[in-house]
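lol forgot to send this yesterday, sorry. struct tokens for the thing we talked abt
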């Protein structure tokens, strides 16, 4: 076989294309690497995140931090940094440090609902489930610098 190096080159090129497909897809839109969102992750988002990120309450959509998680398409349109999403979940900032918008803070039932969803998130192991999924689709997180000042 005289053209074995050529065949090997084609094979290596094909394997490289396949291996880097998720990264190339993400080049156009960072959130594409998360798509399609698995049913279990979508359920967690709906139960724990959408209240502050996309739910329509009293005729107005709640969109905190310009992030709408109400549908996969809305998440794709508004999530600019999937690594940041993983970081917030990993550090326990969301949903545990979530606050209601000013208009909803005055409504005790909404505050009770937020506290209940935080408790359910913990009880159901949602953090671990989301991190397992995110770690399977995102590249490894960059190492944290020890002693670095928080931004």
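and heres what i got for the seq, position by position
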């Amino acid at each position: 076989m005289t053209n074995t190096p050529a065949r090997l080159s084609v094979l290596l090129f094909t394997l490289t294309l396949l291996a880097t497909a998720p990264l190339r897809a993400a080049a156009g839109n960072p959130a594409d690497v998360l798509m399609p969102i698995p049913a279990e992750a979508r359920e967690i988002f709906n139960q724990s995140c959408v209240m502050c990120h996309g739910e329509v309450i009293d005729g107005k959509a709640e969109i905190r931090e310009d992030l709408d998680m109400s549908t996969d398409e809305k998440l794709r349109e508004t999530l600019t940094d999937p690594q940041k999403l993983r970081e917030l979940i990993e550090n326990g900032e969301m949903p545990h440090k979530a606050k209601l918008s000013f208009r909803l803070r005055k409504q005790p039932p909404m505050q009770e609902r937020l506290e209940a969803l935080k408790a359910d998130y913990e009880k159901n192991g949602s953090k671990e489930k989301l991190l397992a999924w995110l770690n399977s689709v995102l590249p490894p997180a960059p190492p944290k610098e020890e002693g670095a000042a928080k931004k």
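The chain has a mean pLDDT of 86. anyway ping me if u want another try
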